[in-house]
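From the shared-data thread, chain only:
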Amino acid sequence: MNIFRLAGDMTHLFSVLVLLLKIHTIKSCAGISLKTQELYALVFATRYLDIFTDFISLYNTVMKLIFLGSSFSIVWYIRRHKIVRRSYDKDQDTFRHYFLVIPCLVLAVLINHKFTFKEVMWTFSLYLEAVAILPQLVLLQRTRNIDNLTGQYVFLLGAYRALYILNWIYRHFTEPHYVHWITWIAGVVQTLLYADFFYYYFQSWKNNEKLQLPA
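Structure, as tokens:
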């Protein structure tokens, strides 16, 4: 494992911890899209089908369990927790996320490395993760005022994938025959979706202002 992969994993982990910190300490999910969280739960559920059949390393298994457990627990908190769910803005979080699921599934069936169930599901998770942030970004544009923890959560999510791109570049030049076009293209698309958010995030940081996205 190289430094870019480790940094990407830790950044991803920190993003989840920031969100859980917001939910646990403030007892609020204001500004958080349930639709995006449900998509991430589906991403991890379909990506880690091999968790009990293929052992790679203890680190790999632990990270899979963390992301699976955290994603479903976040969905549970927003849907079921008697205090947290009161702060969920259902009227603003109206992105029809099934419009993302169906095309990603069709694309995974048509374009994959190998036509097996686990491989198609893994490819589906890549395509879906690339666009899963869209409901969250739309919600932030609608609400405009973004609290610090929500802003940090979204920033860390974007930074994690950007670091993974550096990991892929490093591996391409250091490992023979390392080519994964599906993973690369999905990762680049995912990172590009954060470009607008990154711009306004750094602008707010530079000017010491509250983060706002244009409507």
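The CA atoms of residues 4 and 166 lie 6 Å apart.
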